[in-house]
Amino acid sequence: xxEKAKSxxxxxxxxxxxxxxxxxxxxRTESGRTYPLPGSREDPAANICLxxxxxxxxxxxxxxxxxxxxxxxxxxxxxQILYRIAEMLEGRKDQFVSELVRTGLAKRGAAKxxxxxxxxxxxxxGWSDKVQQVFSSVNPVSSSHFNFSMLEPxxxxxxxxxxxxxxxxxxxxxxxxxxxxxxxxxxxxxTKPTSAISFGEVLHxxxxxxxxxxxxxxxxxxxxxxxxxxxxxxxxVYYGEDSDEIQSLQEHAALNVKRVAIRSHxxxxxxxxxxxxxxxDTQEVKTTWHPVGI
Length: 294
Prior knowledge:
Blueprint lengths: L15 E3 L15 E4 L8 E4 L3 H20 L2 H17 L1 H10 L4 H21 L3 H5 L1 E2 L6 E9 L2 E5 L7 H12 L3 E5 L6 H11 L8 E4 L3 H10 L5 E5 L3 H11 L5 E5 L12 H5 L2 E9 L3
Parallel strand pairs: 1-3, 6-7, 6-9, 7-8, 9-10
Antiparallel strand pairs: 2-3, 4-5, 5-11
Helix pairs in contact: 2-4, 3-4, 4-6, 8-9
């Protein structure tokens, strides 16, 4: 005799496992470790991957492989791709609002954060083909030469994303890095990581090449040193105000003289949390001399 099906109220929900986003794919961590979010292990709302040093190293390899293709693409194309990401995020805004509400935001605040994230992507898409025009220069020199200065991407950038702003802070950290032609490895919020991996799903369905953005989840205490000390990382962007973390970051970054940008924004809705100078943080200035008359 067939047993009567259990009612929906008796059914145990299947908690989603949010995998990391590396090289355009969604692998599990190398160690297989996860942590529950939030609450107890008996009733987690989701399972989040707990990344290790090996996961970070794999992500750096993917980011390095993507540098030449991404930095070699036209500024116009990069702007179009950022705009496409904004379009994809717009189409899934209800999902992101729901996820942000589960992290503790009120629905109105969650909707505002999603809208701000979309607008920020459009903002940096607009800067893509203008930043070079604004900040490049023809320099006056006393010899018979033309002297030009122009911007070039620094390469692979490690990003410690904001802890409290799960989506808008993440977008504000990633967009200026990639619009300038860099690739990145990002450590998302530990307490509010779901929006970051869902944003990886948006990236996956957009036109951005694999390896340009790599999203990891895990503990700052375990990964911060590696984000700063890895010899194939060219710059690090850190969001936060912890003095011990900042000191550790700067000390380890000095091992290969990588650039470190420290940002302490708390309200990412403010105009000060965006701007072309955020793009410049991960750019190098190349100066070329050319003799006059040749």
